[in-house]
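Box 4.2: Ligand-aware structure prediction
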Amino acid sequence: MATKQNGKFKVARYGVLGGTFDPIHNAHLHVAVVALEELNLDKIIFIPSGIPPHKAKHEVTRADHRLMMTTLAINGNDNFFVSETEVNRAGESYTIQTMRELRDENFSAAEFYFIVGADAFTQIETWAMYEDLLKITKFVVVTRTGSDNKTLDETIEKYKNNFGADIYKISIPNLEISSTDIRSRIKRGKNVEYLIPAVVVEYIRKYNIYKN
Ligand code: NAP
Protein backbone atom coordinates (compact mmCIF):
# COMPACT_ATOMS: atom_id res chain seq x y z
CA MET A 1 0.00 0.00 0.00
CA ALA A 2 1.29 3.52 -0.82
CA THR A 3 1.90 5.74 2.20
CA LYS A 4 2.54 9.46 2.41
CA GLN A 5 6.02 10.53 3.53
CA ASN A 6 7.17 14.17 3.61
CA GLY A 7 4.09 15.08 1.56
CA LYS A 8 4.94 12.56 -1.18
CA PHE A 9 3.46 9.13 -1.82
CA LYS A 10 5.89 6.33 -1.14
CA VAL A 11 5.29 3.06 -2.96
CA ALA A 12 5.56 0.03 -0.66
CA ARG A 13 8.25 -2.46 -1.64
CA TYR A 14 7.56 -6.09 -0.79
CA GLY A 15 9.88 -9.05 -1.07
CA VAL A 16 8.09 -12.28 -2.02
CA LEU A 17 9.73 -15.53 -0.96
CA GLY A 18 7.98 -18.47 -2.56
CA GLY A 19 8.89 -22.01 -1.74
CA THR A 20 7.71 -25.52 -1.12
CA PHE A 21 8.96 -25.00 2.46
CA ASP A 22 8.90 -28.73 3.18
CA PRO A 23 9.93 -27.77 5.83
CA ILE A 24 10.93 -24.09 6.10
CA HIS A 25 14.45 -23.83 7.57
CA ASN A 26 16.86 -21.25 8.94
CA ALA A 27 18.55 -20.56 5.58
CA HIS A 28 15.15 -19.56 4.11
CA LEU A 29 14.69 -17.19 7.04
CA HIS A 30 18.20 -15.78 6.70
CA VAL A 31 17.63 -15.17 2.97
CA ALA A 32 14.53 -13.13 3.89
CA VAL A 33 16.47 -11.11 6.49
CA VAL A 34 19.28 -10.28 4.04
CA ALA A 35 16.88 -9.37 1.20
CA LEU A 36 14.96 -7.06 3.52
CA GLU A 37 18.17 -5.33 4.63
CA GLU A 38 20.06 -5.19 1.34
CA LEU A 39 17.17 -3.94 -0.78
CA ASN A 40 15.63 -1.87 1.97
CA LEU A 41 12.28 -3.61 1.53
CA ASP A 42 9.24 -2.86 3.69
CA LYS A 43 8.11 -6.44 4.26
CA ILE A 44 8.68 -10.01 3.16
CA ILE A 45 5.71 -12.15 2.15
CA PHE A 46 6.35 -15.89 2.45
CA ILE A 47 4.23 -17.87 -0.03
CA PRO A 48 4.17 -21.64 0.48
CA SER A 49 3.31 -23.41 -2.79
CA GLY A 50 0.03 -25.31 -2.91
CA ILE A 51 0.95 -27.91 -5.49
CA PRO A 52 4.51 -27.14 -6.66
CA PRO A 53 4.53 -27.68 -10.45
CA HIS A 54 8.16 -28.85 -10.44
CA LYS A 55 7.85 -31.57 -7.78
CA ALA A 56 6.08 -34.90 -7.98
CA LYS A 57 2.90 -34.60 -5.93
CA HIS A 58 3.53 -37.64 -3.73
CA GLU A 59 6.84 -36.21 -2.51
CA VAL A 60 5.33 -33.12 -0.96
CA THR A 61 3.88 -32.83 2.56
CA ARG A 62 0.25 -31.66 2.97
CA ALA A 63 -0.08 -27.93 2.24
CA ASP A 64 -1.80 -27.17 5.57
CA HIS A 65 1.22 -28.54 7.48
CA ARG A 66 3.69 -26.56 5.31
CA LEU A 67 1.60 -23.41 5.74
CA MET A 68 1.43 -23.86 9.53
CA MET A 69 5.18 -24.53 9.83
CA THR A 70 5.87 -21.35 7.82
CA THR A 71 3.46 -19.34 9.98
CA LEU A 72 5.07 -20.61 13.19
CA ALA A 73 8.59 -19.93 11.86
CA ILE A 74 7.98 -16.24 11.17
CA ASN A 75 5.83 -15.57 14.23
CA GLY A 76 7.13 -12.56 16.16
CA ASN A 77 8.85 -10.84 13.23
CA ASP A 78 6.78 -7.76 12.34
CA ASN A 79 8.38 -7.53 8.87
CA PHE A 80 7.41 -11.05 7.85
CA PHE A 81 3.99 -12.23 6.59
CA VAL A 82 2.59 -15.45 5.19
CA SER A 83 0.23 -15.57 2.24
CA GLU A 84 -2.19 -18.46 1.78
CA THR A 85 -2.90 -17.57 -1.84
CA GLU A 86 -1.14 -20.55 -3.45
CA VAL A 87 -2.29 -23.01 -0.79
CA ASN A 88 -5.91 -21.97 -1.34
CA ARG A 89 -5.71 -21.99 -5.14
CA ALA A 90 -6.91 -25.07 -6.98
CA GLY A 91 -4.35 -26.71 -9.24
CA GLU A 92 -0.64 -26.15 -9.55
CA SER A 93 1.02 -23.03 -8.11
CA TYR A 94 2.39 -21.02 -10.98
CA THR A 95 4.45 -17.99 -9.96
CA ILE A 96 3.18 -15.94 -12.91
CA GLN A 97 -0.38 -16.26 -11.59
CA THR A 98 0.67 -15.28 -8.05
CA MET A 99 2.61 -12.22 -9.19
CA ARG A 100 -0.24 -11.10 -11.46
CA GLU A 101 -2.65 -11.43 -8.55
CA LEU A 102 -0.41 -9.40 -6.25
CA ARG A 103 0.03 -6.72 -8.91
CA ASP A 104 -3.69 -6.53 -9.73
CA GLU A 105 -4.74 -6.41 -6.07
CA ASN A 106 -2.37 -3.54 -5.36
CA PHE A 107 -2.71 -1.57 -8.61
CA SER A 108 0.52 0.44 -8.76
CA ALA A 109 0.65 1.11 -5.01
CA ALA A 110 3.30 -1.55 -4.38
CA GLU A 111 6.37 -3.05 -6.03
CA PHE A 112 7.10 -6.76 -5.69
CA TYR A 113 10.52 -8.41 -5.64
CA PHE A 114 10.44 -12.18 -6.12
CA ILE A 115 13.30 -13.65 -4.08
CA VAL A 116 14.73 -16.84 -5.45
CA GLY A 117 17.83 -18.97 -4.94
CA ALA A 118 20.34 -19.09 -7.78
CA ASP A 119 19.65 -22.80 -8.37
CA ALA A 120 15.93 -22.24 -8.83
CA PHE A 121 16.54 -19.11 -10.94
CA THR A 122 18.75 -20.95 -13.41
CA GLN A 123 15.76 -23.25 -14.09
CA ILE A 124 13.39 -20.37 -14.79
CA GLU A 125 13.06 -21.17 -18.49
CA THR A 126 11.12 -24.29 -17.42
CA TRP A 127 8.58 -22.14 -15.50
CA ALA A 128 5.15 -21.28 -16.92
CA MET A 129 5.24 -18.10 -19.05
CA TYR A 130 8.70 -17.21 -17.74
CA GLU A 131 9.19 -14.44 -20.31
CA ASP A 132 6.07 -12.62 -19.07
CA LEU A 133 7.15 -13.25 -15.48
CA LEU A 134 10.53 -11.61 -16.11
CA LYS A 135 8.74 -8.63 -17.63
CA ILE A 136 6.26 -8.02 -14.81
CA THR A 137 8.28 -9.02 -11.74
CA LYS A 138 11.48 -7.74 -10.24
CA PHE A 139 13.77 -10.57 -9.16
CA VAL A 140 16.22 -10.89 -6.30
CA VAL A 141 18.58 -13.78 -6.95
CA VAL A 142 20.34 -15.20 -3.91
CA THR A 143 23.85 -16.46 -4.45
CA ARG A 144 25.97 -18.38 -1.98
CA THR A 145 29.23 -16.65 -1.06
CA GLY A 146 32.11 -18.22 -2.97
CA SER A 147 29.96 -19.88 -5.64
CA ASP A 148 30.82 -19.40 -9.32
CA ASN A 149 28.58 -16.66 -10.64
CA LYS A 150 29.82 -16.36 -14.23
CA THR A 151 27.00 -18.36 -15.83
CA LEU A 152 24.45 -16.70 -13.56
CA ASP A 153 25.76 -13.23 -14.46
CA GLU A 154 25.52 -14.07 -18.18
CA THR A 155 21.96 -15.34 -17.71
CA ILE A 156 20.95 -12.20 -15.82
CA GLU A 157 22.48 -10.01 -18.53
CA LYS A 158 20.59 -11.96 -21.23
CA TYR A 159 17.24 -11.48 -19.45
CA LYS A 160 17.93 -7.80 -18.88
CA ASN A 161 18.68 -7.31 -22.57
CA ASN A 162 15.92 -9.53 -23.97
CA PHE A 163 13.05 -8.73 -21.63
CA GLY A 164 14.10 -5.51 -19.87
CA ALA A 165 14.09 -7.59 -16.67
CA ASP A 166 14.87 -5.92 -13.36
CA ILE A 167 17.15 -8.36 -11.51
CA TYR A 168 19.17 -7.81 -8.35
CA LYS A 169 21.70 -10.13 -6.77
CA ILE A 170 22.33 -10.63 -3.09
CA SER A 171 24.84 -12.90 -1.48
CA ILE A 172 24.43 -14.90 1.71
CA PRO A 173 26.93 -17.11 3.54
CA ASN A 174 26.91 -20.63 2.20
CA LEU A 175 24.52 -22.26 4.67
CA GLU A 176 24.43 -25.94 3.81
CA ILE A 177 20.87 -26.43 5.05
CA SER A 178 18.37 -28.17 2.82
CA SER A 179 14.80 -29.31 3.33
CA THR A 180 15.71 -32.67 1.74
CA ASP A 181 18.48 -33.22 4.31
CA ILE A 182 16.17 -32.21 7.18
CA ARG A 183 13.49 -34.70 6.05
CA SER A 184 16.10 -37.41 5.74
CA ARG A 185 17.54 -36.68 9.21
CA ILE A 186 14.07 -36.85 10.80
CA LYS A 187 13.33 -40.13 9.05
CA ARG A 188 16.59 -41.55 10.46
CA GLY A 189 15.73 -40.30 13.96
CA LYS A 190 18.47 -37.62 13.91
CA ASN A 191 18.32 -34.22 15.60
CA VAL A 192 17.28 -31.19 13.50
CA GLU A 193 17.48 -28.56 16.23
CA TYR A 194 19.26 -25.35 15.15
CA LEU A 195 18.54 -26.12 11.47
CA ILE A 196 14.90 -25.10 11.82
CA PRO A 197 13.16 -22.92 14.42
CA ALA A 198 12.36 -24.71 17.70
CA VAL A 199 8.59 -24.15 17.21
CA VAL A 200 8.79 -25.96 13.88
CA VAL A 201 10.72 -28.86 15.49
CA GLU A 202 7.89 -29.11 18.05
CA TYR A 203 5.20 -29.02 15.35
CA ILE A 204 6.92 -31.77 13.35
CA ARG A 205 7.17 -33.93 16.49
CA LYS A 206 3.55 -33.30 17.45
CA TYR A 207 2.19 -34.33 14.05
CA ASN A 208 4.80 -36.99 13.40
CA ILE A 209 5.74 -35.50 10.02
CA TYR A 210 8.63 -36.88 7.91
CA LYS A 211 8.81 -40.15 9.89
CA ASN A 212 7.65 -42.34 7.01
P1 NAP B 1 12.29 -24.31 -1.74
O1 NAP B 1 13.13 -25.50 -2.04
O2 NAP B 1 11.28 -24.46 -0.66
O3 NAP B 1 13.24 -23.08 -1.39
C1 NAP B 1 12.75 -21.75 -1.41
C2 NAP B 1 13.85 -20.83 -1.89
O4 NAP B 1 14.90 -20.81 -0.92
C3 NAP B 1 14.46 -21.33 -3.19
O5 NAP B 1 14.55 -20.25 -4.07
C4 NAP B 1 15.80 -21.88 -2.76
O6 NAP B 1 16.81 -21.63 -3.73
C5 NAP B 1 16.14 -21.07 -1.53
N1 NAP B 1 17.00 -21.85 -0.61
C6 NAP B 1 16.75 -23.06 -0.06
N2 NAP B 1 17.76 -23.46 0.73
C7 NAP B 1 18.69 -22.47 0.67
C8 NAP B 1 19.99 -22.30 1.26
N3 NAP B 1 20.54 -23.20 2.08
N4 NAP B 1 20.66 -21.15 0.98
C9 NAP B 1 20.13 -20.23 0.15
N5 NAP B 1 18.91 -20.34 -0.45
C10 NAP B 1 18.21 -21.44 -0.19
O7 NAP B 1 11.57 -23.74 -3.05
P2 NAP B 1 11.36 -24.32 -4.51
O8 NAP B 1 10.47 -25.50 -4.40
O9 NAP B 1 12.66 -24.45 -5.24
O10 NAP B 1 10.51 -23.13 -5.18
C11 NAP B 1 10.99 -21.79 -5.26
C12 NAP B 1 9.90 -20.91 -5.88
O11 NAP B 1 9.90 -21.07 -7.29
C13 NAP B 1 8.46 -21.28 -5.44
O12 NAP B 1 7.72 -20.10 -5.23
C14 NAP B 1 7.91 -22.04 -6.62
O13 NAP B 1 6.49 -21.97 -6.76
C15 NAP B 1 8.59 -21.29 -7.75
N6 NAP B 1 8.57 -22.11 -8.98
C16 NAP B 1 7.62 -21.82 -9.90
C17 NAP B 1 7.52 -22.57 -11.06
C18 NAP B 1 6.47 -22.21 -12.08
O14 NAP B 1 5.82 -21.19 -11.92
N7 NAP B 1 6.29 -23.01 -13.09
C19 NAP B 1 8.42 -23.64 -11.27
C20 NAP B 1 9.38 -23.92 -10.29
C21 NAP B 1 9.45 -23.14 -9.13
P3 NAP B 1 17.72 -22.78 -4.37
O15 NAP B 1 16.86 -23.50 -5.35
O16 NAP B 1 18.87 -22.04 -4.98
O17 NAP B 1 18.14 -23.67 -3.23
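In the box above, the bound molecule is NAP. Residues 18-21, 27-28, 31, 49, 52-54, 93-95, 116-120, 127-128, 142, 172, 175, 177-179 surround NAP (CB under 6 Å).
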